[in-house]
Design a protein that fits this description.
Strand content of chain A: under 5%
CATH architecture of the largest domain in chain B: Sandwich
Order of helices and strands of chain A: HHHHHHHHHHHHHEHHE
CATH architecture of chain A: Up-down Bundle
Oligomer: heterodimer
Order of helices and strands of chain B: HHEEEEEEEEEEHHEEHEH
Distance between the termini of chain A: 28 Å
Radius of gyration of chain B: 28 Å
Largest sheet of chain A: 2 strands, antiparallel
Number of strands of chain B: 13
CATH topology of chain A: Cytochrome C Oxidase, Chain A
CATH superfamily of the largest domain in chain B: Cupredoxins -  blue copper proteins
Number of strands of chain A: 2
């Protein structure tokens, strides 16, 4: 990897080991953060490629580029890769590791070696998942949800894939434990809970969900494994089992998991918007509190994935009610972000554009979630492309766009060089337009009744599917420009100083790139994270 | 009241409210970005850190709004659950990857024939994995779960043909597991319901294997033109020798009457190499129907 531009190379040079070992055996949170960053980016690109193939197949009715079995395996692997290998570790494991210890004034996380072990578990889990694609009965074709009895019956290599996800779960749990401990124990003097940057608050809420919810998916997937290998009949009604029980167990984790995915993104947005408005975040306490409220309430809404399953109407009543309750803290966040802009001094550079489009896309995704939370309307759009559009708005338009914002916002700090602004704007515009063409069209398709996970469809859906596929091309074109410009800039772009954006959180107070130990002297914090009056000029 | 009449107003209300909120948020964002852009506002003109009353307002208003949505959503859903008295009962059987509908008088069909303007309740049963009974035109959907007694009701408001999809992913043929609801005037429906059954009784006529293969969904996996589906093609298979695995041991068998009969009644006994043991058991086939199927397969050339 080429070296940054500034005279001091910071954490890039100061290490006892050399070559690849200085990375894969490093316990420096910044190096581990970058390891995660490149791992998740790699899998993101794999997921994108599979997604593009899916859209190509759906461009026209009937067979376009692949057969049904390949299509089913493709959407399964797309989901598994995107969820377990990209989006769950994406922001918390990469930027959480890179930035969080510095933001609280610490020299590293509480358990640096455990941190490295988490990354290794991630790599081992990923290798197992990838092995599952090329061995046994071929890549899994169950959908990322692994619903029984299908997943217990199919001849494809589900057993190995769930084992891989099981290992990935431990990586996530250990990162959660590490972050909770770090945030409790390693805050600098004066870094009170009320002065924690909102990104840290969001990671804190996320970490608790990781610790508490992930074991459940691990156990559930072990049950699927046992069902397949030993034939326990736990989910087989002819032997007294219950397939709906699997769905409960699966969603008890997998719904809170969407908050593992979105909360850190909300944290990123809460950092970027005040810095680029040069104004304190509006309603700091409410945003911090709403992160915790989302994490707590989000843990008891899983049943809204199961309105059509045949579970009792009383359960639907309760889950629908709780689902609407969880909408409130999300709305509070959106209102506070928008109010932060009021009477600010707004600079529309790339991180801010991604942050503002996050607010818009997350709002569309969140509002379409209300259609899914209401029992009456969910019945019609459940398991249709409406749901596919909805969660891509939240996960890709939300977390994905926040991740791109974070790449532009924080990576210059660690590389000492930055991307070029104009190509970044072009990339953003293409992605924003392509994204909406693709996923809004999917929502319309869903309202018109096109089920999801359909390899083939009736002619009445043909035109909108073509539109969505064209949207995917625009989106990918933007993405390519974004990545080329970003990484070209990081290695060969303009050099940046300690505080290119005029931020007031601690990471901007230390040299660029950060020294190995982050702080030469333990910092003493005397002001809030968004107090720009004392912060340096950009 | 039809199911559409119960559901569509809820859609209009929720989507309408969402649209108003979205326009509000977008307009505020765009206005602020234009008015307070750095070239026009080089320095922020406020350092306010929050407002207690605004937080109260924008906590309370969304709370009221979502509670109203919850209420409408729930009451609309109740309409989907209250089966009107006197609804026509139809048993639906879902299997990879076909539908079969059985009426109370024993008549069966792979299309769901219903009378216009009459409530119909469909009792859902799965023979293998989870499927989903979804009729977009009527806004109804219910999963078909093995071992569970689910039901769904609807009323066709007008005559016509309405798509019926499988909505719960069920494997290779998931997107082909579609059929139609044929809504016809009641007199025509009654005529259809009673015609063939009586005809069959009177003449004791020979069963039609081709029709059974079609209705039971055999052709969803076993093609007639030699292409490989989820199961071996019927074309020219009779009399050939195939490699199978029986009780874990590989062997070669000749596809004859006995083997076909066994494959239909106990599909898992001897699976042809290269295929998955996924064929459901067709327990509702009579021995005569099995015989007709075997005879039919014998003649697919």
């Amino acid at each position: 990897m080429s070296l940054p531009a500034t005279s001091s190379d910071g954490f890039w040079s100061d290490t006892g080991k050399t070559g690849i070992a200085s990375w894969i055996f490093s316990t420096d949170h910044k190096r581990i953060g970058l390891l995660y960053l490149y791992s998740v980016l790699g899998f993101f690109l794999v997921g994108v490629l599979l997604g593009v193939l899916l859209r190509l197949e759906l461009m026209a009715p009937g067979r376009t580029i692949m057969g049904p079995q390949t299509y089913n395996a493709t959407f399964t692997v797309h989901g598994v890769v995107m969820i377990f290998l990209f989006i769950i570790p994406s922001i918390p494991a990469s930027f959480g590791n890179l930035v969080m210890p510095i933001q609280i004034g610490a020299r590293d996380v509480a358990f640096p070696r455990l941190n490295l072990f988490s990354w290794w578990l991630y790599v081992i889990g990923a290798v197992i998942v990838l092995t599952a694609l090329f061995t046994g009965g071929g890549p899994p074709d169950t959908g990322w949800t692994f619903y029984v009895p299908f997943s217990a019956k199919t001849g494809t290599n589900v057993s190995l894939a769930v084992l891989g996800v099981f290992v990935l779960g431990f990586s996530s749990i250990l990162t959660g434990i590490n972050f909770v401990t770090t945030i409790h124990r390693l805050r600098a003097e004066g870094m009170t809970w009320g002065r924690l940057p909102l990104f840290v608050w969001s990671l804190y809420a996320t970490a608790w969900v990781q610790i508490l919810a992930t074991p459940i998916i691990a156990i559930t997937l072990v049950l699927v494994f046992v069902e397949r290998v030993v034939g326990t009949g736990l989910f087989d009604p002819s032997r007294g089992g219950d397939p709906i029980m699997f769905q409960h167990l699966f969603w008890i984790y997998s719904h809170p998991a969407v908050y593992i995915m979105i909360l850190p993104a909300m944290g990123v947005i809460s950092e970027i918007i005040p810095v680029f408005s040069r104004k304190p975040i509006f309603g700091y306490k409410m945003i911090a509190f709403s992160s915790l409220a989302i994490a707590a309430a989000g843990s008891v809404v899983w049943g809204h994935h199961m309105y059509t399953s045949g579970m009792s109407d009383t359960a639907i009543l309760v889950f629908s009610f709780l689902t609407f309750i969880v909408a409130i803290p999300s709305a509070i966040k959106v209102f506070n972000w928008v109010s932060t802009l009021y009477k600010g001094s707004i600079s529309l550079e790339a991180p801010m554009l991604f942050a503002l489009s996050f607010v818009l896309l997350f709002s569309i995704g969140g509002l379409s979630g209300l259609v899914l939370g209401a029992a009456a309307t969910d019945i019609h759009v459940h398991d249709t492309h409406f749901v596919v559009g909805h969660f891509h708005y939240v996960m890709f338009g939300g977390t994905g766009f926040a991740f791109f914002g974070a790449l532009h916002y924080w990576l210059p700090k660690f590389y000492g060089r930055r991307y070029a602004e104009k190509p970044a704007l072009v990339a953003w515009a293409l992605m924003f337009v392509g994204f909406n063409i693709m996923y809004f069209t999917m929502q319309v398709l869903g309202i018109r009744g096109m089920p999801r996970r359909y390899y083939d469809y009736l002619p009445e859906f043909a035109r909108l599917n073509l539109v969505a596929t064209i949207g995917s091309w625009i989106l990918v074109l933007g993405l390519i420009i974004l990545l080329v410009n970003l990484f070209r800039g990081l290695f060969r772009g303009e050099a940046v100083g300690a505080n290119p954006w005029g931020g007031a959180t601690l990471e901007w107070s230390i040299p660029t790139p950060p020294p190995t130990e982050n702080f030469e002297e333990d910092p003493v914090v005397t002001h809030g994270p968004y107090d720009f009056k004392g912060a340096g000029k950009p | 009241m039809t199911t559409n009449q119960a559901i569509d107003p809820v859609f209009v209300f929720i989507l309408g409210a969402c649209l108003v909120l979205l326009i509000g948020i977008t307009a505020a964002m765009i206005t602020f970005v234009i008015r307070y852009r750095r070239s026009r506002a080089p320095e922020p003109t406020s350092q306010v850190e929050g407002s207690f009353w605004l937080e109260i307002v924008w906590t309370a208003l969304p709370t009221v709004l979502v509670l109203v949505m919850f209420y409408y959503g729930w009451s609309g859903y109740l309409a989907l659950r209250r089966v009107p008295p006197g609804a026509l009962k139809v048993n639906a059987t879902a299997r990879m990857w076909s539908w079969n509908f059985r009426y109370e008088n024993g008549k069966s069909s792979n299309k769901l024939m219903v009378p216009v303007g009459k409530p119909v309740v469909v009792l859902l049963e799965s023979q293998d994995v989870i499927h989903g009974f979804y009729v977009p035109a009527f806004r109804v959907k219910r999963d078909v779960v093995p071992g569970m007694k689910n039901h769904v009701w609807f009323m066709a408001p007008k005559a016509g043909s309405f798509d019926l999809f499988c909505s719960q992913y069920c494997g290779k043929g998931h997107s082909a597991m579609i059929t139609t609801i044929e809504a016809v005037p009641e007199a025509q429906f009654n005529h259809w319901l009673n015609e063939e059954k009586e005809e069959g009784k009177e003449k004791g006529h020979k069963l039609d294997g081709a029709k059974i293969a079609q209705e039971k969904g055999c052709l969803g996996c076993h093609s007639l033109d030699g292409t490989t589906g989820a199961g071996p093609s019927f074309k020219g298979i009779y009399g050939t020798k195939v490699k199978v695995t029986r009780d874990g041991k590989p062997m070669t068998v000749t596809v004859d009457d006995a083997y076909l009969r066994e494959s239909i009644t106990a599909p898992g006994a001897a699976i042809v190499d290269g295929f998955q043991p996924i064929m459901p058991t067709f327990g509702d086939l009579t021995p005569d129907e099995v015989g007709a199927l075997v005879e039919y397969i014998e003649h697919v050339k």
